[in-house]
């Protein structure tokens, strides 16, 4: 079974630009979550999509947005990039089991550097 | 405010010893607690999940305890090996919007010396 695939692996962008990251979840998983990981803040939850609908959202500005397609693939967009957006962006797909507990399967991440 | 605390200092131990990592939390009533392993430049990998009504869970050389009174989980790796060197993250599942979203601690780095 293929794992979670994130593209691209590395990205360098300039302040003010926008960026789109892609995530293909494990086949059959309908929940996709996005996280931002930085040395200072750790792993921060951005949002979760389930069946093409945003089900949960973390405490990030509106510059961070996402969507999910009918095949469960998801994209995340960051507009008007700031230096502080430099981070490892992780996508996780989840299998729901036993009263809602989720085991998150993470991709390798996209390392975004804003210069 | 809600907090998940893991020791920010790296834990250094000798090969063969038992490593014990701590996860403390405040202002949470988690239904589940999970432990993940993360290697540099890679995404976290799920290790174990323990429910609020379970005291202990084991998997091979791994053992997790969960004390909802103390609001603490302990993660043990017995007979540790250099290959166990990584950052270990605890995550609490909190119900939100019809699903459980894991909230992660910042992790503790474990270094096992040969």
Any descriptors?
heterodimer, A: 115 residues, mainly beta, seven-stranded mixed sheet, four-stranded antiparallel sheet, 0% helix, 58% strand, B: 114 residues, six-stranded mixed sheet
Describe this structure in words.
The complex is a heterodimer of chains A (115) and B (114). With 115 residues, chain A is mainly beta. Chain A has strands at residues 5-7, 10-13, 19-24, 31-38, 42-50, 53-57, 64-68, 74-78, 87-97, 101-106, 110-114. Chain B is globular, with a radius of gyration of 14 Å. Chain B is 0% helix and 61% strand. Chain B is mainly beta. In chain B, strands 2, 4, 5, 9, 10 and 11 form a 6-stranded mixed sheet that branches. In chain B, strands 1-3-8-7-6 form a 5-stranded antiparallel sheet, with no helix packed on it. In chain B, a hairpin with a 2-residue loop joins strand 6 (56-59) and strand 7 (62-67). Chains A and B meet through strand 4, strand 5, strand 9 and strand 10 of A and strand 4, strand 5, strand 9 and strand 10 of B.
């Amino acid at each position: 079974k293929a794992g979670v695939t994130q593209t691209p692996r590395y990205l360098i962008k300039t302040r003010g630009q926008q960026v789109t990251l892609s995530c293909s979840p494990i086949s059959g998983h309908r929940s996709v979550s996005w996280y931002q990981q930085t040395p200072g803040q750790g792993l921060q939850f951005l949002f979760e999509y389930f069946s093409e609908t945003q089900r949960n959202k973390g405490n990030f500005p509106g510059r961070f947005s996402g969507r999910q397609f009918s095949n469960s693939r998801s994209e995340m967009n960051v507009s008007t990039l700031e230096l502080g957006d430099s981070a490892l962006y992780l996508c996780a797909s989840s299998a729901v089991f036993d009263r809602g507990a989720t085991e998150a399967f993470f991709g390798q991440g996209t390392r975004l550097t804003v210069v | 405010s809600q907090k998940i605390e893991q020791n920010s200092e790296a834990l250094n131990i000798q090969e063969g010893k038992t490593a014990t990592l701590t996860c403390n939390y405040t202002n949470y009533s988690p239904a589940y607690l999970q432990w993940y392993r993360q290697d540099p430049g890679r995404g976290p990998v799920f290790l174990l999940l323990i429910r609020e009504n379970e005291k202990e869970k084991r998997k091979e050389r791994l053992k997790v305890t969960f004390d909802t009174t103390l609001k603490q989980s302990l993660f043990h790796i017995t007979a540790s090996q250099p290959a166990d060197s990584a950052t270990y993250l605890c995550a609490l599942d909190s119900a939100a919007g019809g699903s459980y979203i894991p909230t992660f601690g910042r992790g503790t780095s474990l270094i096992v010396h040969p």
